[in-house]
């Protein structure tokens, strides 16, 4: 079946099959958070992005093979409600942005800085540090050697705009700058965007609206 990226809490996961990587998207919790399970097709090693909620669903999605690591995109509580239980069950090492790690109540084994590499099996992901939604939000970029890039944006970029900056002009200016310079400028229109809530999008669908976002200030 064709991947749509449209999932709902209590419903089935959706799977995006790439040549080297399988991406399973599932929605969990009262805030409809997205969690993404990445599986290297060469080694079967797995990585989870955001153990947001509902550990039972996440562990069922992970399966008997477990996960080697879990990345928390930022410190907001709706993105780590199941982290302690998932780590306890799997022994996974934890990653988070260096400037948000202190706000996550599960120890971060590997603090991430801009440009750091996160690996799942033979697949390489690049962390980009975006400031504004939180001080230490990170997104993960997978530059697929067989196709277009894929970016897991947490709450920094959604269809229709950047993440919530709580009507703080400085925070918005920082986030829109980082999104433009670290995501839109280096990556092509075909780049697939996997956000922390809701449906997926592409950079091409969102790029024409960047001036509107700047003008409205959110």
Automatic annotation (TrEMBL):
InterPro entries: MBL_Glyoxalase_II, Metallo-B-lactamas, RibonucZ/Hydroxyglut_hydro. SUPFAM superfamilies: Metallo-hydrolase/oxidoreductase (SSF56281). Gene3D superfamilies: Ribonuclease Z/Hydroxyacylglutathione hydrolase-like (3.60.15.10). SMART domains: Lactamase_B (SM00849). Pfam families: Lactamase_B. Residues 32-197 form the Metallo-beta-lactamase domain. This is Glyoxylase-like metal-dependent hydrolase (Beta-lactamase superfamily II).
């Amino acid at each position: 079946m064709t991947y749509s990226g449209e999932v709902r809490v209590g419903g089935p996961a959706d799977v995006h099959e790439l040549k080297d990587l399988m991406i399973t998207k599932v929605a969990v919790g009262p805030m409809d958070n997205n969690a993404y399970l990445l599986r290297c097709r060469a080694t079967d090693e797995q990585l989870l992005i955001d153990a947001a909620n509902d550990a039972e669903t996440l562990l069922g999605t992970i399966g008997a093979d477990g996960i080697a690591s879990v990345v928390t995109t930022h410190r907001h509580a709706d993105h780590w409600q199941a982290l302690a239980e998932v780590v306890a069950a799997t022994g996974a090492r934890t990653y988070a942005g260096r400037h948000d790690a202190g706000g996550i109540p599960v120890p971060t084994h590997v603090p991430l800085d801009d440009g750091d590499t996160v690996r799942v099996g033979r697949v390489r992901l690049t962390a980009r540090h975006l400031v504004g939604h939180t001080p230490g939000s990170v997104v993960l970029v997978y530059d697929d050697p067989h196709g277009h890039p894929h970016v897991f944006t947490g709450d920094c970029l959604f269809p229709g705009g950047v993440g919530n900056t709580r009507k703080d002009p400085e925070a918005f200016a920082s986030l829109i700058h980082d999104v433009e310079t670290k995501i839109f400028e280096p990556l092509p229109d075909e780049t697939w965007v996997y956000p922390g809530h809701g449906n997926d999008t592409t950079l091409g669908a969102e790029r024409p609206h960047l001036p509107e976002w700047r003008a409205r200030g959110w």
